[in-house]
Amino acid sequence: MIEPLFSKDISGCAIVGIINTKGKPIKGDVITEAISVMHERSNGLGGGFAAYGIYPEYKEYYAFHIMFLDEGIKESVEAYLQEKMVLVKSEDIPIRKKMSFLNTPILWRYFLEVPQSKLTPKITEEDYVVSIVMNINKRFKGAFVFSSGKNMGVFKGVGYPEDISRFYRLEEYEGYLWTAHGRFPTNTPGWWGGAHPFALLDWSVVHNGEISSYGINKRYVETFGYECSLLTDTEVIVCLLDLMIRRHRLPIDIALNALAPPFWSEIDSMEKNMREALTALRIVYGSALLNGPFSIIIANSESMIGLTDRIMLRPFVAAKKDDFVYMASEEAAIREICPEPDAVWSPKGGEPVVARLEVQI
Amino acid sequence: MNFSYPEFLVKVSENCIKCRRCIKECSFGVFSWDGEKIKINHEKCVACHRCAACCPASAITILKYPVSFKENHLWTEEILRDIKKQADTGGKILTGCGNDKPYPVLWDKMLIDACQVTNPSIDPLREPMELRTYLGKKPEKLEFWHDKSGEIKLTTVMEPQIKLETPVIFAGMSYGAVSLNVHLILARAAKELGTIMNTGEGGLPQELLPYKDHIVVQIASGRFGVNLEYLNSCAAIEIKIGQGAKPGIGGHLPGEKVTEEISRTRMIPAGTDAISPAPHHDIYSIEDLRQLIYAIKEATRYRKPVGVKIAAVHNVAAIASGVVRAGADIITIDGFRGGTGASPKVIRDHAGLPIEIALARVDEQLRKEGIRHLASIVASGGIRSSADVLKAIALGADAVAIGTAALIALGCHLCQKCYTGLCAWGITTQKPELTRRLNVEEGALRVTNLVKAWNLEIKEILGALGINSIESLRGNRERLRGIDLDEVYLDVLGIKPAGR
Ligand code: SF4
Ligand code: SF4
Prior knowledge:
The complex is a heterodimer of chains A (361) and B (500). Chain A has 361 residues and is α+β, with helices and mostly antiparallel strands. Chain A has a single domain (11-356), classed as 4-Layer Sandwich (Glutamine Phosphoribosylpyrophosphate, subunit 1, domain 1). Helix content of chain A is 28%, strand content 28%. In chain A, a hairpin with a 2-residue loop joins strand 11 and strand 12. Chain A is globular. Chain A starts with 10 loop residues before the first strand and ends in a 5-residue tail after the last strand. Chain B is of the alpha/beta class and 500 residues long. Chain B has 15 helices and 23 strands. In chain B, the strands form eight sheets. Chain B has an eight-stranded parallel beta sheet. In chain B, strands 6-22-23 form a three-stranded mixed beta sheet, with helices on one face. A two-stranded antiparallel sheet of chain B has the order 1-4. In chain B, helix 4 (180-193) crosses helix 14, helix 8 (316-325) crosses helix 10 and helix 11 (386-395) crosses helix 14 (440-464). The interface between A and B is large, with 47 and 45 residues. The complex binds iron/sulfur cluster (2 copies).
């Protein structure tokens, strides 16, 4: 069995994301084409995709994508899920069985409902789901939840992203928002759970970079009951977003500012309201600042957000065409699927690019 | 018969030009003039090096007194001397400065990380490096009002914060223990550096009022100089419960040090002993502390942070948690290496905990209880360099306080004779002919230089860590590794061993 024995991710990577802001479906092969252009940025040790809007007929239910290292652990996790949740449907995730990868696990998906009896005024449905996910990841050795949101899912593994896409038959899925990741790890073993995206509820993150502040980001979210169990530092971003946006209800722009805030010298010269807001934000959420080189694409059911570190130490390009917004590590990846965008730009360090869904899905 | 030997041997070489300056400079009375040459009383020398530094002919050398004791690891020279001294006097042995015993210095057993290849380091000459630090109580979360147009307004009311432009502040040292010039120097340096100095427990000399926004006033068990004006002439107020050099022990400023000026700031009659009782006689448990904290908050209309300083003792984590729950906005933890103007030697050398351990435990405990945001942590007691500052911040401190290091910048040679009131460097004395030796302008420049130099080094190391803001190092123990530490130490410090 492959043991996750590492606590910090050291890797260079490729990331890409597409959203149709009118909610029109996009096939899985589109994003695959884009990410495969950046083949050189990965080394075959990790590739993955997050897809939104892929389970319209089950959109009321939490879709859990889970990997298991063996049947035994699958049985115990299923028993646990039976006890804690209402199981609506359980099936294997369709794959091309003939394709072979390192350490391919058992891949299964579950559509689940939260029994109302489990909720109290203090514990919301989402808190409950988060605790279930954390529990499985932490206490069931050999099981790992890839994703746990509604009407979305994460597909990932140890391989080049284009191969992972074929393996999962992604050309058969349609979604309005896709993100993808190709990984170049320098020191993690081939563990499928360690590939990106990382997801919790409907948040997902693909990340190119290394978090120099990881130690404190992790200790910070731990004080709020999150448990970082993984091989990589990326999951801490997901926890930070969940904490700030869902639990603390910070406006998204403010939460992004906590991750990559303006420098004090800029804040000091802002107009009063903004200055006070950002000063307090840095004072209170200083431990959420992500330091070190990164570019990330964050997604949830309503939006796709691109962000780089404050001094832009990793590449990031955004583009627009009609209802589509694209984000990627390299412009070439965008041009591959959208040869003539209306606009292409490289945002400033720390300045988020936010693309919101304009319709209700 | 005298059983004691001198500790030091003072030699005046043939280069002596007989200017007799050393006679004036040595406040301990080592030198005198016998009509022809300098006469030396070795017995009195404390090795403060004032004479050697001032001798225009470089004629003076100070040596360890060359009597060899028969080697003995149990009955060391120091123990023999102490026994003889006590047999001579029947008194407890007093001393100044911090614990000088060879306990492990854990700072020197922690190594800092740096970036290579996968993560670029940052050049502090090209990119901004932020050291700004805020001390005070933080809310767990913030609330904002915002509208569609992007207008945003903070609706959470923030508790008062002290803004620092460096994570280094000056530790409490009282007027009385140190001279007015030391206070003026630290106040000026604090203003110049954008940081704070701490009056210690001796009240606030009027001369410091222009610097009040950079001053923390202290309330200790003697309650010297405390009135409403005092509480409102500062950036913050600190209740001093304990001090690392003498946990559990009060203070005693002998009547001869209580000059007219000191009597005024301490609000006691001149010439009387200034006694700080061991406990605060109105604080016999944690709820009493809470009452005092809130009494001060009321008196200052909740406009200033109220801190509490405690000595690092065995149960420090639980005590700190109680202090924070009692309402302290800042908690200062003073390790057993912390300095003192006067302390019984037996306490200084044997009581308390290293700050490294106390800090690591307190930060972890407060996080475990989910109350870390309720108070800032200041670590003090033996911080010697920018490397110590960085390691303290990585362990979890918001800021560190320095006392001894600042005094060394002013000339202190750690002779440990502060309690005599004879400090030849004009630091821990009230004698005008000695305090005059400390030039305020020059002293302020030296202390400012010291902290500026540390700031530069801190920025350099942050850059090497790939970090451009101090808050990303705060509590980031992932960037520290222990060397030569066993598992228990590593566990207590919450760091991994080198190689992992
Ligand atoms: S000035 Fe200091 S070092 Fe020199 S003789 Fe006097 S006590 Fe000794
Ligand atoms: S302050 Fe003065 S008396 Fe005290 S150790 Fe330093 S030099 Fe000696």
